[in-house]
């Protein structure tokens, strides 16, 4: 553990102290499996992540396991750790990266588990290993080093990180983590080589051990073969899946300092029934699995009592799609009003405006709506089943119920996009402003504010757009300038995402094993916190790609033929490739597909077998 | 109906690393977890009726600190202590709870005791202490909002003592006059000590007869 005097020299020292309410304290015994949950971004971001909290309490439920937390330290501490580790000091002790609960350095742990939330956090993962004094490459780590695993949404294409990670975990954490820890415990008691343990977990759903597989490429650089080199390794890795969401922590760690989202979080459902063709989460978490109203209300009471939070957030990919949304909200309000707690929703569809207005009865802040595309043609291509009429009617009802700030999210660079589709974004914003003036003078309390943002579309694995070509940064920038120039209305403000970041995200998202070299080079050239716009340096990445002989065009600006072998094809996410292909074809014709509740699209999961 | 309770508490360990606003939130959440019937203010954005005697600078610990809360029901002091201590974060501990009479703690506070650990030689400390205590004035450049100003801090130094190698300071503290303990310590030690070496050990109010009484 670092000395108090030293800690005070860093910005926000409370990031590194632990000791929060509900953090788990255990007596460490030699036979205990020590697991470090590693979040490759700063404390206040990591602590706002519900997945961390779920897995932390899931793992700590086990008597034979102690799960602690590690976050990416901020740059001032990075410098300090590097200084004490690599430079020769006469009296300084080494201070490698440590876990919050025990203050112990990471080398003392049995397993480090990284969460892959975002491609742009990969250099931070390498930094965390490095700061812990652990070799980056799996093959360079002797038996003395911990086992390094990784999971989370980006693990559905694990290949870019394959050289660094001993095993990946793909799918719902609740499903097979226990089985893995059972195996590890047995291995720890029995003793033996790491490889033996890795072999022992190969038949557990969701486990992928990259060292047991060999990729092969043709002269064009296209993947031609991906086969196991170990007889025990399955040719196809099935995702881990919990048909029912039956675990939820009854408590949450409550931070001592302000985190990004300082509130209790309630997961209403996992998965989404919509099938928007650009959205990876909408496919990899299928089918939509809901928790019951009674269970959620019980959790609400427990969480509020355990944390003392005065805000509770309803988390789901599309909260308004929760079957009994109105009933749930009404019953929750009975609890929350009594306890002076407010309810919040991350983003919403427009179908439930009245319920939303009820939730935000006290502070009617802004409403976030994601039409994703400006024109109807484009919304049909991406299967965002939302018409302009519905958007404007929803906004009108929102204005009537007292909202006067609306955030509109769009994507630029979608497949088959034309200049008209981009113009339509601006037109739609103008129409939203006009809608506000449908209110009477008395009803308009304040001037309306419409803030619009465009994200750069990045095609992702396991979506119908996994074959699509991403547009190049220069095109994104031209589009953004175009939108900027077209916006004439003073009530509309415009923000946009960084185009260069999107390119790198694109290369990694659909990258293969060779991309890992570029990630490593970027790290060695100084890339850190690439997801932070003020830290991101595109020139480092350009250099890294050149040195690693990686051509971004090959990985992300090229339309891939549907018969090309994709680096993530060996993973079975439940949905069939045929279905994705069908959706890709339908998108080209602008044909929409109904949501799962209205009609089964036969995605391959077999919930209703196309009925 | 006014159940104004004064809480005496300690804020130590990792809590020294959180600032006043964060600590306020931690305290509010702790009260919510305790289930105590705290009173809320009226108005658009109701908040708990809770106030602290004196903010503690980041990095320091406090052995005896004070906060006033108003409850909507009569609850015995012991029960208040137990209910809060059952759900405190590491480093927060309620030591006493009693009826608060008169001014609230923030308005009443006039002085504070600090203990500062230092490895500077005792002889040196004794000498500077003697010099400061014997002088009528101690004018030092002090940073203010409008730049650096020469200020006489001597009236805010009530006492300085050296005991067990520690520096003990009694300084004015409160909304009317306040002397930063780091600044005072610098005059004795010759360098600004690290905030983590400072422990605030008591807060005082005037006893009305020229003396001091703990809150």
Written overview of the protein:
The complex is a heterodimer of chains A (611) and B (215). Chain A is an alpha/beta fold. Chain A has 20 helices and 19 strands. The mean pLDDT of chain A is 92. Chain B is an alpha+beta fold. In chain B, 23% of the residues lie in helices and 36% in strands. In chain B, a hairpin with a 2-residue loop joins strand 6 (139-144) and strand 7 (147-152). The chains are: A alpha/beta (611), B alpha+beta (215). At the A-B interface, helix 1 and helix 9 of A face helix 1 of B.
Which bin fits the share of residues in helices of chain B? 10-25%
Radius of gyration of chain A: 25 Å
**Which stretches of chain B of 5+ consecutive residues score pLDDT under 50?**
none
Which structural class matches the secondary elements of chain B? Answer: alpha+beta
Largest interface: chains, residues each:
A-B, 27 and 31 residues
Helix/sheet category of chain A: alpha/beta
Give a quick set of tags describing it.
heterodimer, A: 611 residues, alpha/beta, six-stranded mixed beta sheet, B: 215 residues, alpha+beta, 11 strands
List the helices and strands and how they pair.
The complex is a heterodimer of chains A (611) and B (215).
Chain A: H1 4-7, E1 33-39, H2 43-46, H3 50-60, E2 65-71, H4 75-86, E3 111-115, H5 122-131, E4 147-151, E5 167-169, H6 173-190, H7 194-200, E6 207-208, E7 213-217, E8 223-228, E9 237-238, E10 264-267, E11 269-270, H8 281-284, E12 289-290, H9 293-307, E13 311-315, H10 325-338, E14 342-344, H11 353-359, E15 367-372, H12 376-381, H13 388-400, E16 405-412, H14 419-436, E17 449-456, H15 473-486, E18 492-496, H16 499-509, H17 515-524, H18 538-548, H19 552-556, E19 571-572, H20 577-588
Parallel strand pairs in A: 1-2, 1-3, 3-4, 4-5, 9-19, 10-13, 13-14, 15-16, 16-17, 17-18
Antiparallel strand pairs in A: 5-6, 7-8, 11-12
Helix pairs in contact in A: 5-17, 9-10, 13-14, 14-15, 15-16, 17-18
Chain B: E1 3-11, H1 20-34, E2 50-52, E3 61-71, H2 77-85, E4 92-99, H3 105-108, E5 109-117, H4 122-134, E6 139-144, E7 147-152, E8 157-163, E9 166-172, H5 181-189, E10 198-206, E11 212-214
Parallel strand pairs in B: 3-10
Antiparallel strand pairs in B: 1-3, 1-4, 2-3, 5-9, 5-10, 6-7, 8-9, 10-11
